Amino acid sequence: MRIVLVGPPGAGKGTQAAFLAKNLDIPHISTGDLFRANISQGTALGLEAKGYMDRGELVPDEVTIGMAKDRMEQADAANGFLLDGFPRNVAQAEALDVVLKADEMQLDAVLDLEVPEDEVVKRIAGRRICRNDSSHVFHVEYNAPKTEGVCDTCGGELYQRADDSEETVRTRLEVYHTQTEPIIDYYRAQNLVVTISALGKVDEVTARAMAALKK
User: Fold this and answer.
1) Cα-flanking dihedrals φ and ψ of residue 102, to 5°?
2) What is the pLDDT of residues 19-41, one digit of tens each?
3) Contacts for 9 with CB less than 8 Å, ≥ 6 apart
4) Which UniProt keywords apply (predicted)?
């Protein structure tokens, strides 16, 4: 299957992408991984992207699309792939269609993870990270530490990252609504969108997604 995964920040796209890719036996292709791989390998596209990033500029769509195209054409993606974080806007979605058509491929589904805005804010703004080890992550409501502000694992101080503040989350949501959400209508016109609720436990959401994709 060739799938695009969409949803607001805090919908659990990364977590679901990993589980779904494993269940469907297809590679999980995320924009972040694409950038890191191309930059670390010193590819022409990676060097071009790094130049923009070092100057604090946005990487142009054509560079991102070029990286995605190269990755989708690798042997392990012959039987499908799951795109996470790409396309981010309608221009990228249109460019992806052109790339797929040139390779005589097409998307099978666009999985839309739906989460109420207030839940997104609660999920992200409630996150607390350990200063000693950023892999120690807690949540004031869903995974509270035994002692407020103290990491259960190592006793380090827990803090809220600046980009996890409610104000920043609402700004990120606004960007999502303006730039990324329109691709849902774009793909809905192609009868590709499958919308599921991303509320509940991780395995429940995965089961819901798998059932929807099988249909």
Assistant:
1) -60, -30
2) 999 999 999 999 889 999 999 99
3) 120, 124, 169, 172, 173, 176
4) ATP-binding, Cytoplasm, Kinase, Nucleotide biosynthesis, Nucleotide-binding, Transferase
CATH number of 2-214: 3.40.50.300
Rounded distance between C-alpha atoms, residue 102 and residue 132, angstroms: 49
User: Coil, helix or strand for 4?
Assistant: strand
pLDDT computed for residue 143 by the predictor: 93
Rounded CA separation 155/150 (Å): 6
Q: Is the peptide bond before 116 cis (omega within 30 degrees of 0)?
A: no
Q: What is the pLDDT of residue 215?
A: 82
200 labelled binding-site residue: yes
What is the signed CA dihedral for 124, 127, 131, 136, rounded to 10 degrees? -110
Per residue in 6-19, pLDDT (tens digit) is 999 999 998 999 99
Task: Flag whether 13 is marked binding.
Answer: yes
HEC string of 69-122? HHHHCCHHHCCCEEEECCCCCHHHHHHHHHHHHHCCCCCCEEEEEECCHHHHHH
Residue 143 φ/ψ, nearest 5 degrees = -150, 60
**Residues catalogued as catalytic:** 13, 88, 127, 161, 172
Cα 33–Cα 37–Cα 39 angle in degrees, nearest 5: 120
Residue 46 is assigned to a ligand binding site: no
Q: Is 8 annotated as a binding residue?
A: no
